[in-house]
Structure formats: C-alpha cells, structure tokens
C-alpha cells in the first residue's frame, strides 16, 4: 500500500493524461483517473488506481469520484486539469456547438473541478493544481481563434488562482505545451486547416510526445511545497512559433 498522496488526472484515457498517469504511478502515487472512455484507462493497468467514467462538465459525477478515491487513499494533493478540446476552424465556419463545448471543457470544467479540491488544500495548507494550458494561450495562430481564446482564459485564471492561494501555501501552476503528438486534432475536420497543421507538425519532426509533458509535470510537483514553478512552457526546440 502506497503512502504517497492522491493524484487526480482528468482526460486520462489518452495522450498527456495517460502518460502522466503512468509517470505518477511509477513514482508511487495512488491515482484517480477521470475520462469519458473506461476501456483505455483500464488498459493502462495501473495499481492503486480508481477509475471514473465521467464528463468533466458533470460536476456531481466528478465530485462523487473524488469522494470515493479520497475515502480509499486520503485527500487529493494534486489535481491535474488536463481534459481539453481543440477544434480548429475560421470563426465564420466554426460549428457554434463546438465554440460552446471548447469553452465548457477547457475553461468552465477546469474551474468547477478546481473548486472541488481547493477548500481541502487550503485547510491543510498543502496541495497543487496543475492546469494544462497551451502555447496557444500565448501565441495567436490562424484558425485557432476560439481555441486561442480558451487557452488565454486558462492562463489568466491559473494566475488568478495562484494569487488567491499563495497565502494558503497551495501551488497553482500552468503547463503550456507546444506541439505534442496526441489525438487532440480529432475534432478538426478534414480539409486545408487540418492539412496545414499536419504539414507544419511534420516539418518540425512530429512534435513532442506525451511522456515529455508528463516528465515536466512530475518534476514540478516533486519540488518541495515552498517552491513553485508558476509557469512551464515546453515545446519542441524546432518549433519556431
């Protein structure tokens, strides 16, 4: 039975979420993994792990999963808000439902799920929240307007949360990846926008792999509680924008 504290990861069924789950499990942490798809989380085969099939926007379901995991493993010491949605398009062509969904997943759920753990962390004067932003929260890219907006918001909200919680000794930090080889493009339809993105990705060697981002998150978390990386931008050396 591990004595290390509980780590909660959203969007844990693939990509950065799954890689981060493997990294923290290897470091000896019990986990609560949250995603809409159960089978990929089961296939990770990680010990000391609770699995929850829930949409991150279903706050009662997320809260129930956290309560179940805390009963088994103790209080959440790290929440990684990783679940995200990217649908690239010009604004004129963007499906209005995808506009709403990107803000709901990338911004609203991130805040609501942070609320579920913040009070306990404040009372214990210990804990960390890692929000997965993006280099698109710093740079504007063609056909990224809505996605850019969500990630700029994540960056602003992370800094606001950090300031609110500094006096409570709770760390809040942003990890902003550049181009990473994940399945995030699944909501971008075929056509020139997708082709252009993939061509650039190929030109810089395919981007980072999810394990690269997981390593950065683990490194930041393993610092003593009184030390906080406020922001980590991690991108391929070959990425110029």
TrEMBL record:
* PROSITE patterns, sorted: ADH_SHORT
Gene3D superfamilies from the xrefs? Answer: NAD(P)-binding Rossmann-like Domain (3.40.50.720)
Q: Which Pfam families match?
A: adh_short
Q: Where are the transmembrane segments?
A: none
Q: Which UniProt keywords are given for this protein, alphabetically ordered?
A: Oxidoreductase
Similarity remark: Belongs to the short-chain dehydrogenases/reductases (SDR) family.
Q: What is this protein called?
A: SDR family oxidoreductase
The source organism is: Microbacterium jejuense
Q: What is the lineage of its organism?
A: Bacteria, Bacillati, Actinomycetota, Actinomycetes, Micrococcales
